[in-house]
Write a structure and sequence with these properties.
This protein is an alpha/beta fold. Helices cover 47% and strands 10% of the residues. The chain contains ten helices and six strands; from the N terminus they run βαααααβααβαβαββα. The chain has a six-stranded parallel β-sheet with strand order 3-2-1-4-5-6, with helices on both faces. Strand 4, helix 9 and strand 5 form a beta-alpha-beta unit. The structure holds magnesium ion. The site of magnesium ion has 7 residues, from loops.
Length: 236
């Protein structure tokens, strides 16, 4: 095994449940709306892609707070505020790491493996997540491939192929940790092995092709994946 590569959203942290959903709710409160998306409601809304579209769908279903004429501006303002609040949340360090992430990264650093984070989310958000949640010492070992560095988002394998080329990796000796079907397809499409850690909203997805599917990497008594398991995946 040569490299261990992490997706960001849903893998390093449960970003939809603990980050984006929380930021939407803070934005609603800041704008004086009597609205809070529960974990369950947000799960339904996630079937609609895009934050603005998600809010539109919610108000279409439950009623809009204002007249039709101002809706575009209303949604645009709300979404900008939400994006700022999401960045604040990451930069504050209040978004928790998923269990086992720091441990497995430390094992990989100790073993002298290459590491990377590959995400098609905004580079600024991924950078903040890595630097603040994992800390500068680990971040120094984790080159980030994110956002607009590639033209196509996952499930397109472009982001993993970019990491492969830039780090000089043999994909058959790389293990990727993903939480979604899109991410799994991107990793496999780049010829890499993939272990899935299911996140709050990906439990029902198809993980055919994953080497292992676990609820968490885990810590303490609940360790599900050690570096040795990743190495075994590569060797098989
Ligand atoms: Mg993900």
């Amino acid at each position: 095994m040569q490299a261990l590569i992490f997706d960001c959203d849903g893998v390093l942290a449960d970003t939809e449940r603990d980050g984006h959903r929380v930021a939407f709710n803070k934005a609603f409160t800041a704008k004086g709306l009597d609205l809070e998306w529960s974990v369950e409601r947000y799960g339904e809304l996630l079937k609609t892609a895009g934050g603005k579209e998600r809010m539109r769908r919610h108000f279409d279903e439950t009623g809009w707070p204002g007249p039709e004429a101002g809706r575009d501006t209303f949604i645009k303002d709300l979404h900008k505020l939400k994006t700022d609040l999401f960045m604040e949340l990451i930069e504050s360090g209040r978004l928790p790491l998923r269990s086992g992430v720091a441990r497995v990264i430390d094992e990989a650093i100790a073993a002298g493996l290459k590491l990377a984070v590959c995400s098609t989310s905004s580079e600024r958000a991924v950078q903040a997540a890595v630097n603040i949640m994992l800390g500068p010492e680990r971040a120094a070992y984790l080159p980030i491939f994110a956002g607009d560095m590639v033209p196509a988002k996952k499930p397109d394998p472009a982001i993993y192929k970019l990491a492969r080329d830039q780090l000089g990796l043999d994909p058959d000796r790389c293990v990727v940790i993903e939480d979604s079907n899109n991410g799994l397809r991107a990793a496999i499409g780049a010829g890499m092995h993939c272990i899935v850690t299911i996140s709050s909203y990906t439990g029902g997805e198809d993980f055919t092709g994953a080497e292992l599917v676990v609820p968490e990497l885990g810590d303490g008594d609940a360790i599900a994946i050690r570096l040795a398991d990743c190495q075994a995946v590569c060797a098989s």
